[in-house]
Amino acid sequence: MNKQPKFRIGEEVILQSKDLPEYNGKYTISGITYDGEIYKGVEVGAVLKGVPYYDLGFLVEGKSWNFAVWSEPCIRKNYRTSSMSFSEMINSFDKSNVK
After folding, report:
1. What is the pLDDT of residues 44-63, one digit of tens each?
2. What is the band of 87 on the pLDDT scale with cuts at 50, 70, 90?
3. 45 near 53, Cβ under 8 Å?
4. C-alpha–C-alpha distance, residues 70 and 5, integer Å
């Protein structure tokens, strides 16, 4: 059985690769694949069964390897920033409900 993906297609995420830091940055997930399927003509190597891999919309080409997908440990959620400061948020709570 496949693991439920942490990220959705269309979600903006942050890539944080230790091996290829030159590609780190914000991307939008354009596809999800499992178990070393051939994806966009590029075979995924060293895969874990049932684990999702994410297409971030670009291909990394090496001398003897190519890949177009990333695993969950390399990807982080891109949380939206708040329009309020922490102090403003605390002050906005209705203090009459606090016991």
Report:
1. 455 556 678 888 887 777 65
2. confident
3. no
4. 12
For residue 79, what are the CA distances in angstroms to 3, 13, 27, 43, 57?
A: 23, 9, 13, 31, 20
Which residue would you say has higher pLDDT here, 26 or 59?
26
Query: What DSSP state is assigned to residue 57?
Result: E
Residue recorded with tokens 């959705």: 8
Output the CA–CA distances (angstroms, integers) from residue 9 to 5, 17, 30, 41, in the order listed. 10, 20, 5, 19
Cα 30 from Cα 6, distance rounded (Å): 14
